[in-house]
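step=encode ok
step=design start
structure_in=
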């Protein structure tokens, strides 16, 4: 199978237990990565350094941590933009430092790339939990085929960001993550990939456990994120990706979702795949 890199932002305030569990899940992959690339935008403590070093010692996986403190405060999109350029392999798997990959997550995605040379990006479902990884609260399903993905794109993000594996050359050809965005950086990038005619798909099963936390739905009521989605939908309309009727429907759903109480939003999230 083709070699791949795992790209992870490294937050200096990360819970060390979460970080350890996440990294162990990557190191336990049935097909191990050739390298793990971590981007450090703020100095991390010695305890975190020692933990990471101990996990990768004799693991057979190369660890490359890149320090770029000029990115501090500029948001995830800037970190990922920089990180993509630092990955040396043609395939890159995204992963966050508090999520837990299933052992065959990356092997399953690699098989999809092997089976279809035109495939540019593949993701999958995610099992969501609050605090206990053994207590799955919901399964965030996503559309599987490219036609369904194109339709879902008009209304919400059709990929679970931490599950995706993509071709580096395609992401660079599409302009990489936009450093100007602090929210919706993945949704906006996937729109450029899909509208650019690249082939994408989702595997119809969960590839990882997504740590959402008890306050997840409350955090999603973020005005900057909401405004960014509305702006992206306006762009889809302007560029002819969606009709005016589809825009009105999508706009109305987005507004209603943002304004509804947190308790109701929790159920809407499950229903709409927001």
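sequence_out=
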């Amino acid at each position: 199978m083709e070699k791949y890199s795992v790209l992870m932002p490294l937050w200096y305030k990360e819970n060390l237990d979460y970080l350890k569990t996440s990294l162990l899940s990557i190191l336990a992959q049935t097909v191990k990565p050739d390298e793990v690339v971590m981007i450090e935008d703020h100095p991390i403590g010695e305890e975190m350094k020692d933990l990471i070093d101990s996990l990768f010692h004799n693991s057979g996986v190369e660890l490359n941590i890149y320090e770029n403190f000029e990115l501090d405060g500029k948001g995830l999109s800037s970190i990922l933009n920089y990180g993509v350029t630092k990955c040396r392999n043609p395939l890159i798997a995204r992963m966050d430092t508090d999520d837990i990959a299933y052992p065959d997550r990356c092997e399953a995605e690699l098989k999809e790339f092997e089976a279809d040379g035109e495939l540019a990006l593949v993701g999958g479902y995610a099992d969501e939990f609050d605090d206990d990884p053994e207590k799955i609260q919901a399964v965030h399903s996503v559309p599987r085929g490219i036609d369904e993905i194109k339709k879902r794109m008009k209304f919400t993000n059709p990929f679970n960001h931490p599950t995706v594996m993509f071709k580096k050359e395609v992401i660079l050809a599409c302009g990489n993550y936009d450093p100007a965005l602090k929210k919706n950086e993945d949704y906006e990038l996937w729109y450029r990939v899909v509208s650019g005619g690249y082939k994408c798909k989702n595997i119809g099963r969960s590839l990882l456990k997504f740590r959402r936390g008890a306050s997840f739905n409350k955090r999603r009521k973020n005005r900057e994120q909401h405004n960014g989605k509305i702006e992206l939908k306006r762009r889809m309309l302007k560029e002819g990706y969606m009709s005016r009727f589809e825009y009105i429907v999508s706009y109305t759903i987005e507004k209603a979702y943002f304004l509804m109480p947190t308790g109701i939003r929790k159920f809407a999230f499950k229903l709409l795949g927001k």
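step=design ok
step=annotate ok -> The chain has two domains: 4-214, 215-274.
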